[in-house]
Specification:
Layout: H1 17-30, E1 37-42, E2 45-50, E3 61-68, E4 72-78, E5 84-92, E6 106-107, E7 110-116, E8 119-124, E9 130-135, E10 143-156, E11 159-165, E12 172-175, E13 178-186, E14 190-195, E15 207-210, E16 224-225, E17 228-234, E18 237-242, E19 248-253, E20 261-273, E21 276-282, E22 289-291
Antiparallel strand pairs: 1-2, 3-4, 3-10, 4-5, 6-7, 7-8, 8-9, 9-12, 10-11, 13-14, 13-20, 14-15, 16-17, 17-18, 18-19, 19-22, 20-21
Length: 297
């Protein structure tokens, strides 16, 4: 096509068919396409060509979660009636919710260790570890929305995906406030525990958990508190002597024994204990307390 400048029409000028043709030819020349889009003229027609490989489908696809994995979720597409349709499809999680970029790594000054695909312990370089889980969960049957990307990622051996969850429900890592934990060992003022998941399975990460204040050794051993002098023989046994009274042997009842299950909560302060920092505390749901053993009563 010849180089045609945009015509300059004057107000009130009567347009002829030849003028409209000039305008059409000039507009065709100034139209341009973006990435993956090409505009060409073919006779008196304007042809728009789209490179499908470079132009991802921007429509959201409604999916139902089948199973949750470290960096992706398996889903099935939902049809217009809301029923599952076709085979399982791999959908990438948003980068922040994936496991492989963080598990066993230190990112932004925080060390991460995963106990499952949606639970981890985050330990800052200076501070207490924090147990985090993805909330809300990627549970089977949950509905998500995915869209195509222009990059194919290998999710399993020889399995690739260009789909990514756009996270319309705002899933994120959230600090756990109350959790079940299993005691692995005990110290004077703390317990070493491992968290339990919803199914009762034990994690791999040792966490330091403070005992309630009255059950700790350091505030009382060798001290006189509220008129009573205390001497400890171990972390769970002591002699209490009131002023002007007879001493009595006391034990923590029930004892903190290995593999006992406790409830753990999060404090708003960080304490140092056993060479570690922690903001976790035993909520003492079993009602442990100092008592005189029955054989001495």
């Amino acid at each position: 096509m010849r180089n045609v400048p945009l015509p300059d029409f004057k107000p009130g000028q009567k347009l002829l068919a030849s003028d409209l043709q000039l305008l059409r030819d000039a507009l065709i020349q100034v139209l341009t396409g973006g990435p993956g889009v090409q505009i060409t003229s073919f006779g008196d027609r304007l042809v728009v060509s789209v490179d499908q490989k470079r132009t991802p489908n921007s429509r959201f696809r409604q999916m139902s979660v089948v199973s949750n994995h470290g960096d992706y979720i398996k889903c099935k597409a939902l049809n217009a009636s809301g029923s599952e349709d076709g085979d399982s499809i791999y959908v990438l999680k948003p980068w922040e919710l994936r496991r492989s970029p963080f598990d066993g790594e230190t990112v932004g000054g925080v060390a991460y260790e995963y106990s499952s695909d949606d639970e981890r312990t985050a330990t800052p370089s200076s501070g207490a570890p924090e147990v985090q889980s993805i909330s809300p969960e990627y549970f089977a049957g949950a509905v998500i929305y995915a869209m195509d990307t222009d990059t194919s990622v290998e999710v399993e051996t020889d399995q690739f995906s260009k789909l990514i969850d756009v996270n319309l429900d705002g899933r994120k890592w959230k600090a756990e406030t109350i959790r079940q934990a299993k005691i692995k060992s005990t110290g004077d003022d703390h317990l070493v525990c491992r968290l339990l998941d919803a199914g009762g399975s034990e994690g791999d990460t040792d966490l330091y958990v403070m005992k309630p204040w009255l059950l700790r050794k350091s505030p009382f051993d060798g001290q006189t508190v509220n008129g009573v002098s205390y001497t400890y023989s171990d972390a769970h046994t002591r002699e209490a002597t009131p002023s002007g009274g007879d001493p009595e042997t006391q034990k923590i009842t029930q004892d903190y024994y290995t593999n006992a299950v406790i409830m753990v909560g999060k404090m708003d302060v960080v304490l140092s204990v056993g060479g570690q920092q922690t903001n976790l505390i035993d909520l003492n749901d079993s009602g442990r307390a100092w008592a005189v053993p029955s054989e001495e009563t």
